[in-house]
Specification:
Elements (H helix, E strand, L loop, with lengths): L1 E3 L4 E3 L3 H4 L2 H6 L13 H23 L8 E6 L2 H8 L6 H14 L5 E6 L6 H7 L3
Parallel strand pairs: 3-4
Antiparallel strand pairs: 1-2
Helix pairs in contact: 3-4, 3-5
């Protein structure tokens, strides 16, 4: 899940209820040696991308003027996801595909994004949202 107090939104996706059993299995720690494994880095990058999309929607719906500050600051407790968003992914096939998807989402938008690392302990709100049942 993700949130923004400034833009007044939060979101949550129940991973197990939303995705097929195969996807959930591929994201489990027991499958780390499987070539089809979906790493936590991929999942955290998806969270940043959804946060960006939610910010775009919130700005459009609320008529937020972003001309004075056209950059979304997104905190994330995964250093790989931050690197993939700010630079690029070189090693993960899924990470590179997410980069292309994200570039397409950002294409022609006035709002950019900068991802900064936040310690897991300081990321308490997002962790609580992700555990909503």
């Amino acid at each position: 899940g993700g949130w923004s107090t400034d833009l007044r939104f939060w979101w949550h996706i129940d991973f197990a209820a939303t995705f097929s059993e195969d996807v959930v299995r591929r994201a489990s720690k027991e499958c780390q040696r499987d070539p089809a494994y979906i790493s936590i880095n991929v999942l955290e990058t998806v969270v940043v991308i959804i946060n960006y999309a939610a910010a775009l929607c919130a700005c459009a719906i609320d008529g937020v003027d972003i001309s004075a500050c056209p950059m979304l600051l997104n905190y994330c407790d995964n250093t790989s996801a931050c690197s993939w968003i700010n630079k690029k992914c070189r090693d993960s096939l899924l990470g590179r595909r997410l980069g292309r998807l994200f570039a397409g989402l950002m294409w022609g938008r006035e709002l950019g994004v900068q991802c900064e690392w936040l310690s897991t302990h300081a990321n308490e709100i997002a962790d609580r949202i992700s555990r909503v049942k």
